[in-house]
Protein: Purine-binding chemotaxis protein CheW
Amino acid sequence: MARSVRRKLRQIDRGRIRSAEERVQHILDERTESLASRRKDKASPAQVLPRALVCGSGRERFGIPIEAVAEVLPPQKVMPVPDGPPAMVGLFGRGGRLVSVIDLALALGIESFGEGEDQHFILLRRDQPQVALRVERAYAVADIRLLTGEEATGFRTDAVIGYARLQDAAGDPADTLSLLDPERLLRPFLSTSPVPGV
Structure:
């Protein structure tokens, strides 16, 4: 009788060990699934929102990728560039270097409201030459939602690479931003600059 009791106790202990091992394996499987689903969520484009500096020129609103922006400056006094393109409104000095100023509205061929106190200069993140875009107003850095299909309509030009809305904006078409590629925008001006290094 003592042998049968011992045998039963051993079987119960083995059963406990197996169920403990199974429980550990079950916990590990759940953690693995949880980690795998987190990676999928992070990689999802709906979760990772691009950010842009929202600015206005003329009646249009534009988004400039935040990676392309070095700084937003108040308007500066500029020295005109003789025989330069109309959109290149002048130069100013910053940190011992010349910065070319290009009016965004004139560069895109849209109606500009001229110079004003509310204007901003957007210093672009680039080494040589340094360039600032003159805009009527720089509003804010915001999360944006890229538009596709029929929603993706707005101002058209070679420098516009897509369309977006502010993440928290309603579906009003007036809230559409034209997303700019600064390098495409600058391409015609940099190749014809009459000032060396500008």
In short: The chain has three helices and ten strands. The radius of gyration is 30 Å. The chain has one domain: 51-189. Residues 51-189 form a domain with the OB fold (Dihydrolipoamide Acetyltransferase, E2P) fold (CATH 2.40.50.180).
